[in-house]
Specification:
The complex is a heterotrimer. By secondary structure, chain A is α/β, with parallel strands linked by helices. Chain A contains twelve helices and twelve strands. In chain A, strand 9, helix 10 and strand 10 form a beta-alpha-beta unit. The chains are: A alpha/beta, B alpha/beta, C mainly alpha.
Chain lengths: ~325, ~260, ~375
């Protein structure tokens, strides 16, 4: 009896030890806060939440996710101020409105808190606010690369379905694409709103008014999914050159069935995971990568879908 | 009998195609309680609303203190000295007695050049006026909603009298009240009449009218049957004139007494 | 039939303490104590009660207080204004358009924006009063109209929906600091030097205290609360506000200018929304098309927590201010306490429910409602 008890307790200790290792192994208690600009309703940021959770676990640090519930950037500024007041070891955030957010971010840096900018913002802005680095996909450059790729495939005109008209980075993507193609942006970018039925109708309206459009560019699952439905409805699915930013369940299906040529993966997992790793190593050992990290663009075509499908919505 | 303070001559009021008043002539004297009787729909409310400036007569003249008057709105009539206590009282239950008492006539004091509501004065006056009327308040901040129906009527009457009413129009004041409260209101009316104010008492209850009235006018379907003084007419006759008589006469027979 | 006794034996003598306690603000006071107790227990050392933490939730509370005062007076007068949030976005955008796109001096942009927005408020009031339509519907329409313009105008003129650069344009202006500046900066610098407040340790802010002064937003909030409270309880006009909301018809019969009162209250609400917007734009340096979204509901919630009756005629500005304080403390405090941010709405709903139930009991005690 006694030996069985002993064996059970040993087994329990062995099983439990990796779980306990994270807190004890480093002997410190590092706290980071990620403040995003996304409203609660934006499901794209789920990948970010999972990425920081995984990184936190593996690096043995605590990472919190905070965001303004309605997506109001003024509220986001208050949250950054609040995060700074709670004195974490580092803050990871975006610069979705440089004017509004630079004040609170610079104040956090001046307090001695390390900051990494991810996702939205340019490397130049990140340097100006005193952040350690920028991790993300520069929007204009990604659009430019996509436009150049499309130009090589013979595209001359396009429709850009912008579902986030109030964000400057969305416009940058469309503008970059137009410049990559070598054409004027003009009326080729439409404000589609955020309601799926509305987006579908506006796409249908534009394509029937401009039947010679060579390509369609959408900026994420929010605009891609209704556009797929629209193209299926007016019979252009598979005929018109369709590229999109970001990945998602319907987009993956579209890639497989040939409706979508490529998806630009900005690899949000890396935008969440890498800043945590960089901050933890910087706080512990003082090492810091010498430049910004471009998490994208990664062009995903029908060939590279296996892992994407497996982890769609979770880590991809 | 002194000169009439208000004389209404041939008043007509049309609402679209509906003729509410078809030529009514009545006089009211100070120090007198003049009862205006009539069944529901006879035109009593419309008549007093015309007298107090809410409606403008379609035809006919109003003379106040001998001069012809045209009231543009209720404020004009109030300023002239015609105060109305409506059936729904114009008392706001959520507000205190003091605030209700002085609504529209708030006393003001100047502090540093700006004028503020003089709560001390308002509270003092309210408490003393209420005491005179026999209502004992816990405090001037007491909300009107905590008072009974009869007490609210009395506050409304006290308010009208305090602000210099020369003519006090009471629209069905006792219709929703119990016995004790009715008696209180009628006593108040008596008190007010003795102060020299002309009281116009609207009712469809002949017994209440007979208790306080000096003169009686009956309205039926927008017209009057004339005015009678106390002693010149019996309750039964008044009752007959109001309802058109026959139905109530038969009912009296089977019920064995005055309705 | 003599009632000449000095006191009515049917009325219980209530203690002076109880009399002082039973007032419209009681629900708000109880809520404030409860909320602070909760956060003192769960977030005491999270930074919530150091100088930065206090400034953080004070500023958010002040934001709500500004619009809650306007919403409170209007609700007591018997009406709602659902377009407050849209007006915040609209006012901010107008300042950016006038000051940046058209290049006018900032003080002119601010004054013209106030004039336009208060005029919109007057229009809201005029339509409600003339047509007799519920203000809920009229201001719902204004909500859409203003929000639409807020997106359309910058899109058409500048092809974008966020206009920045206001801080630079406001430099040297005499009116801008009254909304976006800070007061008592000397005192706070002294506190930083002496060590009561911590200071920045690097960058070009080094040596300055982390809290450098009291933002004008807070000053405006307190000023509006004081003004609103005195107007409501100590002036003739305040009596008219209660009357207009309690029973508009009864008020008219006694000569209260109900229509004028309501239109003025709509104008005041618009004024408060514009103050909010100007402070926000001056502090953050940019105007966005989605600013102020849904703020009108938050204002109404703060006012209701503070004891006002939705149907009008009863309420308190101090109560609304406490409701706004509760709102701000809870919104920021949940972050300090490490509570999942989606639970904010759950907390808010629970507080609202308790506050309304408590306020209903208190109101029945005061007004004798059954």
């Amino acid at each position: 009896m006694k030996s069985i008890m002993k064996k059970l307790m040993l087994t329990a200790a062995v099983i439990a030890s990796p779980l306990m290792a994270s807190a004890d192994a480093h002997g410190d208690d590092l706290n980071y806060i990620l403040v995003s600009h996304a409203p609660d309703s934006d499901s794209w940021w789920n990948t970010i939440k999972n990425g920081i959770a995984l990184a936190g676990e593996q690096m043995g640090v605590n990472v919190e996710y905070r965001n303004p519930p309605s997506g109001d950037l003024a509220d986001m500024a208050r949250i950054i101020e609040q995060a700074a007041a709670s004195n974490p070891d580092g803050i990871i955030t975006t610069l979705s409105d440089y004017d509004v957010l630079k004040g609170p971010v610079m104040a956090a840096v001046a307090q001695g808190i390390d900051v990494i900018i991810m996702n939205t913002g340019t490397p130049a802005q990140a340097a100006e606010v005193g952040a350690l680095m920028y991790v993300g996909q520069p929007e204009y450059d990604a659009g430019l690369a996509a436009g150049q790729r499309a130009a090589r495939d013979g595209v001359g005109s396009f429709l850009c379905v912008n579902h986030y008209i109030s964000s400057p980075s969305s416009t940058d993507r469309c503008q970059g694409f137009a410049d990559g193609l070598g054409v004027d942006l003009g009326n080729q970018m439409i404000d589609s709103g955020q309601d799926p039925a509305e987006i579908k109708n506006r796409v249908l309206a534009y394509l029937s008014a401009n039947p010679d459009t060579d390509a369609v560019l959408t900026l994420g699952p929010a605009s891609a999914d209704p556009t797929i439905l629209a193209l299926q409805e007016n019979g252009m699915a598979g005929d018109i050159y369709f590229g999109t930013f970001d990945l998602g369940e319907e987009i993956v299906k579209g890639l497989k069935s040939g409706i979508i040529e490529w998806g630009i993966d900005q690899q949000p997992f890396l935008q969440a995971y890498l800043p945590v790793v960089v901050l933890a190593n910087y706080d512990r050992y003082g090492v810091l990568p010498g430049n910004n990290i471009n998490s994208g663009p990664g062009f995903v075509t029908a060939d590279g879908l296996a892992k994407v499908e497996q982890f769609a919505g979770e880590f991809r | 009998m002194s000169d009439p303070i208000i004389r209404m001559t041939n008043i007509e009021k049309h609402f679209g195609s509906v003729i509410a008043l078809a030529g009514v002539t009545v006089e009211f004297h100070p120090g007198e309680c003049h009862c205006l009787l009539g069944d529901n729909g006879a035109g009593k409310s419309t008549f007093i609303k015309t007298m107090s400036g809410v409606h403008k007569p379609t035809a006919g003249t109003i003379e106040f203190e001998g001069a012809e008057m045209n009231f543009a709105d209720p404020r004009d009539a109030i300023t002239a000295g015609i105060a109305t206590v409506y059936q729904d009282l114009a008392m706001i239950p959520l507000m205190s007695v003091s605030r209700n008492f002085f609504m529209g006539n708030e006393p003001r004091k100047k502090v540093a050049g700006m004028s503020f509501f003089d709560h001390e004065h308002a509270n003092d006056v309210t408490m003393s006026e209420m005491k005179k009327m026999g209502i004992n308040l816990r405090g001037p901040d007491q909300a009107v909603g905590t008072l009974s129906g009869g007490e609210r009527q009395t506050v409304a009457i006290a308010r009208a009298v305090h602000f210099g009413a020369k003519v006090l129009i009471l629209d069905e004041p006792t219709s929703a009240l119990g016995v004790r409260q009715t008696a209180n209101v009628l006593a108040t009316v008596d008190r007010v009449r003795k102060q020299g104010i002309a009281v116009v008492f609207i009712t469809h209850n002949v017994r209440h009218a007979m208790a306080v009235g000096d003169r009686f006018t009956v309205l039926n379907r927008g017209k009057t049957y004339g005015t009678a003084s106390r002693g010149e007419i019996t309750p039964e006759a008044l009752q007959d004139m109001m309802a058109g008589g026959e139905e109530l006469a038969t009912l009296e027979g089977s019920l064995g007494g005055t309705v | 039939m003599s009632d000449a006794t000095n006191s009515d034996e049917r009325i219980k003598q209530t203690s002076r303490f109880r009399q002082a306690l039973i007032r419209p603000e009681l629900g708000g006071m109880v809520g404030t104590v409860a909320v602070f107790t909760f956060f003192l227990l769960f977030a005491f050392d999270s930074g919530m009660f150091n100088s930065q933490g206090v400034m953080n939730w004070s500023v958010v509370s002040a934001q709500f207080m500004i619009i809650a005062v306007g919403a409170c007076l209007l609700m007591i007068a018997g009406e709602f204004d659902l377009s407050v949030g849209s007006m915040i976005g609209f006012a901010g955008m107008m300042i950016a358009i006038f000051g940046i796109t058209l290049g006018w001096p900032m003080w002119m942009a601010i004054i013209i924006t106030f004039v336009i927005c208060v005029a919109f408020g007057a229009l809201n009031g005029y339509i409600v009063v003339r047509t007799g339509l519920p203000s809920f519907i009229v201001t719902l329409a204004t909500l859409f109209i203003l929000r639409g313009f807020t997106i359309f105008i910058p899109q058409t003129l500048e092809r974008k929906t966020i206009i920045g650069g206001i801080r630079e344009a406001a430099e040297g202006d005499w009116l801008a600091p009254i909304f976006g500046g800070k007061v008592l900066t000397g005192f706070f610098q002294w506190m930083g030097d002496v060590g009561i407040i911590s200071v920045f340790t690097r960058g070009n802010l080094e040596g300055q205290p982390v809290v450098s002064g009291i933002p004008m937003l807070i000053v405006w909030a307190l000023a509006l609360v004081v003004f609103g409270h005195i107007l409501l309880t100590r002036t003739r006009f305040g009596n008219w506000i209660f009357a207009a909301g309690g029973d508009a018809q009864a008020a008219r019969y006694t000569g209260v200018p109900v229509d004028r009162v309501k239109i003025l209250m709509f104008m005041f609400t618009a004024f408060c929304a514009t103050v909010f917007a100007v402070c926000q734009v001056m502090e953050f340096g940019s105007a966005g098309a989605d600013r102020g979204l849904l703020k009108e509901f938050e204002a109404i919630i703060a006012v209701v927590i503070g004891g006002a009756l939705l149907t009008g005629g009863y309420g308190s500005v101090i109560g609304a201010a406490l409701g706004a304080l509760i709102f701000g403390v809870v919104q920021q405090g949940l972050f300090f306490a490490n509570v999942e941010s989606s639970l904010f709405r759950v907390f808010l709903g629970v507080i609202l429910l308790f506050a309304v139930i408590l306020n209903t009991y208190i109101r029945r005690m005061i007004t004798g409602e059954r």
